[in-house]
Write a structure and sequence with these properties.
Blueprint (H helix, E strand, L loop, with lengths): L39 H6 L9 H12 L5 H14 L8 H15 L3 E2 L6 H7 L1 E2 L1 H14 L3 E6 L4 E7 L2 E5 L13 H11 L13 E3 L1 H18 L3 H16 L18 H18 L3 H11 L6 H21 L3 H10 L6 H21 L4 H16 L5 H19 L7 H15 L3 H27 L3 H14 L4 H14 L1
Parallel strand pairs: 1-2
Antiparallel strand pairs: 3-4, 3-6, 4-5
Length: 498
């Protein structure tokens, strides 16, 4: 039996935490850590609760959330709003205006449904849209026409409701017939086939929730986070989550437990933490343990969450130690663990220290070259067992191998002293207890010593030195009275005497 290093490798301790995306490249090499401070614009855009954002503010924020850094998108929305406002076909009543705006969008702006296309700037440039981008633009245009509109969210979908004459009318913006969909046969024939969603009527209040216009806009950022993470671009997802949290809460840290918005939304602070941890897990899975530890040192002071950060720290240190051990770099592994003790919890340090103690013991067991070495190793194993660094079972495994290796040295050339090996194993069994491996080892050495008596007897017999042969066989049988070969040798000797 040869003991192996008892360590484990954590490639990925957790499932990557997924950001829910509505109708939603290879990983880029990231030279620097992602931004974890909010974009100043996010803080400027955040307003107190119940603030009534103007349509132009929502237009600007939606383009910023989409990643548009130019002024052209905002100017384009202005022109669309003006075209609707000055259209000779614009109806007089609010209800007809709301339906006209949806019709206008489908005839002039919305070209093709694309499940992953949440960005307003992309909708304006190529006409591709999904429920989020079309809902945001529709809400903006409704507000520009003086209509009161809000967002509606389900677990997998978003649309808009407009308040007209004290009543709420749903608008499924992804469909030409989506105005007041509960009363449109054409809508029911087409909507599910086009988008893959089922309409959630107002009476299903547990499956839908009204959200503010700014919460609707924030879904653009959330969906972009989902797209980046789906493409394994976890670093690029982090600042978007930070910006979304700042947009919704203002001070992410101070308000981390105060957000009381849409129940279908995760806490913005917790969402940021999930993205931070996902990036750390990405570094870990990429084999970049020391980068992962640097990321923890960079991000955790601003976004404290001791238990979850500690899980990542433990995984990173464990995996790095595992690499050292695979390369038989025991000293380097110990130095690395000791250098990280200050960031590990006492429990996690103890777990890793135990793994490393095990590896260190395996190393010195494999290096036993003398009785002196063996005594030192056995003492180290007993000390580790006493201090609960290794289990009783593991101590038994290591002791067994140390005893076997020492016995092998005692019985090895040039003397091949089987008796010394037998005595050593017997004494060890008396001290530490027996097991199947040690019993087999003892049987092997006893068998070898018995064979040695037989060989010596045969050599004396062949030389016709019968007195010496008799002395040898008597000595052998004194130790092994039931050995069949030696008993046959004595019968041979007795026949010669007759």
């Amino acid at each position: 039996m040869k003991p192996t290093i008892n360590f484990f490798l954590i490639l990925l301790m957790f499932l990557l935490l997924q950001t829910p995306g509505f109708a939603q490249n290879s990983a880029n090499k990231i030279e620097a850590f992602p931004r974890i401070e909010p974009d100043p614009k996010a803080l400027d855009f955040h307003k107190p609760e119940n603030y009534n954002y103007s349509w132009i503010e929502l237009a600007e924020i939606s383009l910023w959330a989409s990643g548009d850094t130019t002024a052209s998108g905002l100017e384009q929305i202005r022109k669309i709003a003006e075209a609707i406002k000055t259209s000779s076909k614009l109806p007089a009543t609010d209800k007809e205006k709301a339906e006209f705006i949806l019709d206008y969008m489908h005839k002039n702006l919305l070209k093709s449904y694309s499940a992953n296309q949440s960005r307003v700037d992309a909708l304006l440039s190529n006409g591709r849209f999904n429920c989020v981008s079309s809902s945001v633009l529709y809400l903006i245009l409704c507000k520009s026409a003086g209509l009161n509109a809000v967002g509606v969210e389900t677990k997998v979908h978003a649309f808009v409701s407009v308040y007209i004459d004290g009543k709420s009318i749903d608008v499924e913006t992804t469909n030409l017939y989506g105005f007041d969909p509960g009363n449109r046969k054409e809508f029911h024939d087409q909507f599910g086939r086009v988008t893959g969603f089922a309409y959630v009527p107002p009476k299903n209040y547990r499956d839908r929730q009204t959200i503010t216009p700014i919460e609707l806009v924030s879904i653009i950022l959330r969906n972009r986070v989902s797209e980046f993470e789906a493409a394994k671009r976890f670093g690029e997802a982090v600042p978007l989550a930070v910006d979304r949290a700042a947009l919704l809460t203002g001070d992410i840290i101070a308000d981390k437990d105060a957000y009381s918005g849409a129940s279908f939304f995760d806490s913005p602070y917790q969402d940021v933490l999930n993205r931070l941890f996902n990036y750390g897990i990405f570094l870990l899975k990429s084999g970049r343990e020391e980068d992962c530890l640097s990321w923890v040192a960079f991000a955790s002071p601003k976004y404290p969450e001791e238990n979850r950060w500690q899980e990542i720290i433990f995984a990173a240190v464990n995996n790095r130690i595992g690499k050292f051990l695979k390369a038989s770099q025991i000293i380097e592994a110990r130095n690395f663990l000791d250098s990280q003790e200050h960031i590990l919890s006492s429990a996690n340090y103890s777990r890793l220290d135990n793994i490393l103690v095990d590896a260190e013991l395996v190393n010195i067991v494999n290096r036993i070259g003398s009785i002196t070495d063996s005594n030192r190793v056995v003492a180290a194993i007993i000390e580790a067992q006493t201090n609960s660094k290794i289990s009783d079972k593991r101590a038994s495994e290591l002791l067994t191998f140390a005893i076997q290796k020492t016995a092998s040295i005692l019985s090895g050339p040039p003397e091949q002293d089987w008796l010394a090996a037998i005595n050593y194993v017997e004494n060890a069994i008396a001290q530490f207890g027996s097991n199947r491996e040690l019993e087999q080892t003892l049987r092997l050495y006893r068998n070898n010593r018995a064979i040695d008596f037989h060989n010596r007897f045969a050599a004396a017999w062949n030389k016709k030195n019968f007195a010496e042969a008799e002395r040898i066989i008597n000595e052998g049988l004194a130790e092994f009275p039931n050995d069949r070969q030696l008993l046959r040798d004595r019968e041979t000797l007795n026949r010669q005497k007759k």
